[in-house]
Amino acid sequence: MIKFEHVEKSFGRKNVLNDLNLHIKKQETVALVGLSGAGKSVTLKHMVRLLTPTAGRVLIDGEAINEVDGEDLARIRSRFGYLFQSAALLQWLDIGENVALPLREHTKMPNDEIVERVRAVLDKVGLLDDYHKFPSDISGGMQKRAGLARAIITEPQIILYDEPTSGLDPLTSRTIDELIMNLQDGLGVTSVVVTHDMISALKVADRIFMLHMGRLEEVNEPEAFLRTDNKVVRSFLDAQHIDPDFLVGRTL
Predict the structure, then answer these.
(1) Does 166 score more than 90 pLDDT?
(2) I need a surface site. Which of 84, 130, 154, 182 has the fewest CB within 10 A?
(3) pTM surpassing 0.70?
């Protein structure tokens, strides 16, 4: 589904991605974790070509998104939904119109159909009663849910999440985790979650990818990830007080 082949990315003299190779399968949820500056968000932005690699290729179902332009780029991008870290809601639009925006900008769907679909996705994320509220009228967690509703309004095949639980309290964070899992089950999408929140990563991910210094340091299922002997991963987990038995007898 998504492959990076020897991807490098430099900003001036700073190398952020260094010969990065990864493969994300169709309909799986992958968590990208690592220290700040490891290249997680930069990797995510390459998937939808918000950034272009200095070298290497980014393949979406075999098509190199970094090598196309115009209609072909728009076609590949249309397969994605993107939840930005800040939710990126427009403050002058109410929640319903924020969610409707991708349909109004990229389709010729009649207004009544747009409203019907917006109401359906707001219902999925528990915000139907907040349709006519403005972003400033709702909490940070509700804004993240509204951003998620906008990300799925076009019925994408791939959803990218940039720090979906950042800045949220633990209870709201777990609510966002449940939404990610429910969307995965209900829509059959491929999900890529960039997160510093290891509890979230362990809960939602089929596999955890750890980036370190712009390279893929470890790829494993959650339980195996916790029990790895990789010293870089162990140091990362120890700093968060997460031991190899963290999941034993625990309901996340």
Answers:
(1) no
(2) 182
(3) yes
